[in-house]
Each structure stands twice: as structure tokens, then as C-alpha cells.
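Section 5: illustrative case.
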């Protein structure tokens, strides 16, 4: 069988996590319309095992969007993404229509040129990309001679994702199974639960508030019919606490309800979810706090 590791990298908000979920047919990575949603590496395992020559195990590594960091958390995120480049067998570089030739893109491209790993360019969001614009982007990247293949896809609609998978399969070698057949991710459920809560915070709040949020699971008790979860939402400014809680607690209730419904779907049990909001000032520039929240090398 064939097996290998595939890095999904690109600028924030281009649809990396959406692509990961589309490949797996399951949501393991949170996605929002706000840049810098993903903060650590998210591994997703695609296994096809039918006893024929198409058998494979592809381990996808979704990474934080590469950006110019404005705090220590941002540096950690960008470093995490760049370090992944050297640890994988194939690199998927994702771009979308918002492509600019700003310094950010050329920075990533310079790094990509130095890495010998085979690279595929994925132009995402073709569902909202006029054909002329697609052609311009295609040619711009094709002329660089950095990418072995270029694919246009819609991760959201699953368009052309199977063809992309076939391409990736053809680029990895024979190898062992790295993970059990039925494993979709090696992250514990608790981690995914905390991410779902953070996703709802991102969706319910605007501007700077959600970017300063981290979620910590304080208690996790699995009973026969119900899972009891207690979680703390940390914000990094005093003034943000009230915004997250909202008038008469309405915001927090909304966040809690939508998170609970999704967690119930994930765990397949009823869930009792209790949320608290606490302040940890400027934690995004505090190395200890950053690694305390789980943003550290693993
Ligand atoms: N129209 C359209 N929207 C998409 C597509 N793929 C992703 N999106 C949207 O783009 C936004 C960003 O998607 P994410 O998957 O969170 O992007 P990301 O690259 O993981 O972002 P970061 O984690 O912040 O780096 C979300 O609102 C998605 O729904 C697509 O194929 N078409
Ligand atoms: Mg993401």
C-alpha cells in the first residue's frame, strides 16, 4: 500500500481546514470566515483499505495560516506551519481569489522554492472565481515553475477534491500504516471539544475579541447517557469579558447552545456544557500562557 504525510499550508482564511474536512468527509478542524482560526497542527488520517492496489493511508497535516506575526502566539503559529514543510512527503499550497502579490505571498514562495518536497498548488473557492480570474492565477503560479501540478477546487462544495486525492496518491511511495484503520485523527476528543467552543466564540464575536480567546477544558466526566463538560473561555482584556457574556448573558448562552449541539453530534451522547469566562491579560505575548493553552511543539 501507499502511505505518506501531506502538509496543507497557505495564508490565513484560504480554506485549508475546509479542505481537510472535505477530504475526510468529517469535521475535525474548525473553520470560520475569520483569518487565523487554526492555531496548531491538526492531523487528519485518510485510509482506504479494500485489498487492492488503490489501498493507501494519507496523513494530512492542516496548519495555521502563515502571516506576519503581531504577537508570540502568531510567531508560534507561523513557525508551526513553516516547520511542517520539512516533515512531509507532499506539500499542498492553498491559495484563493484574494491572492495578492504582497510581501506575505512572496515570503512563503521563497521558502517553498528552497524546500525540495514535491508541491501541488491548489486554487480554492473556484465556486466564486470567474474563469478569467482563475486563468490569471493559474498562469501566474504556473510560470514560477515551483509546482508539479495545479488544481482548481471548491473545498466547500467538494468539487475536484477526489481528483486532487488521486494526484496526491500518485505522489507518495509504498509505506506502512501509520495509524489504525478507523482512526480519523489522533487528537483526543477533549481537544476537538475545546476547538468547537472556540469556533462558536469566533462565529459569535467580532473584531479583536475572538482572536484573544483560548478555551480550556476544566472537567470532562463521561457518564452512561451524558457527558458533563466544564470549560473556561479566557480572554486577554478586561473589557472583553463583558462582551463575551453579553447582555443578560445572552451571548454566552448562544455560544454554549451551539457548541453543545455540535459536541453532542461528535460524542453521540447528551452533553451538559458549563462555560465560564475569565481574563488572562495579554496571554498572547506570554510564552508560559501560550504553552499552557497547548500551543506548543508536540
Ligand atoms: N465559497 C467558498 N468558500 C470557502 C471554500 N473553502 C473555504 N471557504 C470559506 O473560507 C473561510 C475560511 O475557511 P477555513 O477552512 O477556516 O480557512 P483556513 O485556511 O483553514 O484559515 P486559517 O485556519 O485561519 O488559516 C470559511 O468561511 C470557509 O467556509 C470554497 O471552496 N468556497
Ligand atoms: Mg484553518
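Designed sequence:
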Amino acid at each position: 500500500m501507499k502511505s505518506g504525510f501531506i502538509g496543507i499550508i497557505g495564508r490565513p482564511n484560504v480554506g485549508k481546514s475546509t479542505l481537510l474536512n472535505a477530504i475526510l468527509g468529517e469535521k475535525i478542524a474548525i473553520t470560520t470566515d475569520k483569518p487565523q482560526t487554526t492555531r496548531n497542527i491538526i492531523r487528519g488520517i485518510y485510509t482506504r483499505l479494500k485489498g487492492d492496489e488503490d489501498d493507501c493511508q494519507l496523513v494530512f497535516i492542516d496548519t495555521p495560516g502563515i502571516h506576519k506575526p503581531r504577537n508570540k502566539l502568531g510567531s508560534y503559529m507561523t513557525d508551526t506551519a513553516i516547520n511542517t514543510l520539512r516533515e512531509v512527503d507532499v506539500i499542498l499550497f492553498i491559495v484563493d481569489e484574494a491572492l495578492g502579490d504582497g510581501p506575505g505571498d512572496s515570503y512563503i514562495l521563497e521558502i517553498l522554492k528552497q524546500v525540495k518536497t514535491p508541491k501541488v498548488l491548489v486554487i480554492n473557492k473556484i465556486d466564486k472565481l470567474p474563469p478569467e480570474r482563475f486563468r490569471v492565477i493559474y498562469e501566474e503560479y504556473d510560470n514560477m515553475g515551483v509546482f508539479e501540478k495545479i488544481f482548481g477546487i471548491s473545498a466547500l462544495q467538494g468539487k475536484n477534491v477526489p481528483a486532487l486525492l488521486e494526484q496526491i496518491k500518485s505522489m507518495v511511495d509504498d509505506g506502512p500504516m501509520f495509524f489504525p484503520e478507523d482512526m480519523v485523527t489522533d487528537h483526543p476528543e477533549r481537544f476537538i471539544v475545546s476547538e468547537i467552543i472556540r469556533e462558536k466564540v469566533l462565529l459569535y464575536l467580532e473584531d479583536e475579541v475572538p482572536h484573544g480567546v483560548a478555551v480550556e477544558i476544566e472537567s470532562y466526566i463521561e457518564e452512561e447517557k451524558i457527558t458533563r463538560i466544564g470549560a473556561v473561555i479566557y480572554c486577554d482584556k478586561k473589557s472583553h469579558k463583558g462582551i463575551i457574556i453579553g447582555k443578560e448573558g445572552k451571548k454566552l448562552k448562544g455560544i454554549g447552545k451551539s457548541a453543545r449541539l455540535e459536541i453532542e453530534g461528535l460524542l453521540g451522547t447528551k452533553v451538559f456544557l458549563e462555560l465560564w469566562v475569565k481574563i488572562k491579560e495579554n496571554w498572547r505575548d506570554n510564552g508560559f500562557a501560550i504553552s499552557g493553552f497547548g500551543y506548543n511543539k508536540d
